[in-house]
Amino acid sequence: MKQSLSEKLYLSYHFEFEHNSHTITANASSLTGKEEILVDEVCVSKKRKLGLSSRHKFVIDDTHYELHFNVTGFLLCKVECSLMTNGKIIETKSRSAFDNKKVFIRNLVIFFLAGMAFGYVAATIALKVMG
After folding, report:
1. Are 42 and 64 in the same domain?
2. Among 10, 14, 44, 111, whose Cα sits 20 to 30 Å from the Cα of 36?
3. What domain range includes position 115?
4. CA atoms 107, 112, 113, 114: torsion sign
5. Residue 77: what are its φ and ψ, rounded to 5°?
6. Is 59 found in the same domain as 9?
C-alpha cells in the first residue's frame, strides 16, 4: 500500500487488522486529531482527539470491540494501536519515526528548515510593521 505524504512524515497513522474475516482499519492524524475506524471500508467510529490516548468502541456481528490509540513516545513519535474484544488484546501494532533512521533524519531536516523559513518571514514582517 502506498503511503501518503502525511504518513511518510509521521503526521498521520494507518493501522490495519484482520479478525473474524473482517478488515478493521484505524486512521489517525496527529495534526488534526481526527480518528476514524473502518470495518470492511464502512466507518463505525469517528472523533477528534488531541490527547495522548483514545478509545473507540464498536460492534461487529454482535461482538463488542475496542480499539485503543496510545502515544507511548511523545518526542519519538511512537504510536501504538491495540484491537481488543472481551477485555483481551487481539493484536497490537505500532509505528515510530525511528523505524527508519534515514527517514527520521530527513524529516528532522525538513522541519528545521521550514521552521527557519517561517521564523525569517515572521521576523521580516514584524520589523516592517514595527518600523
Report:
1. yes
2. 111
3. 100-131
4. positive
5. 60, 40
6. yes
Pair 86, 104 in one domain: no
Structural domains in the chain (count): 2
Going edge to edge, which strands form the sheet with 53-60?
53-60, 63-73, 78-85, 88-95
- How distant, in Å, are the alpha carbons of 12, 97, 120 from that of 7? 5, 10, 28
Residues 79 and 111 in one domain: no
pLDDT tens for residues 59-111?
Answer: 999 899 999 998 886 666 688 999 999 889 999 998 876 666 777 787 788 88
What confidence score (pLDDT) does residue 43 get? 94
Give yes or no: residues 78 and 126 share one domain: no
pTM over 0.85: no
The amino acid at residue 88 is K
Which residues lie below 8 Å from residue 31, measured CB to CB, with a gap of 6+? Answer: 6, 11, 12
In whole angstroms, give the CA distance from residue 67 to residue 16.
11
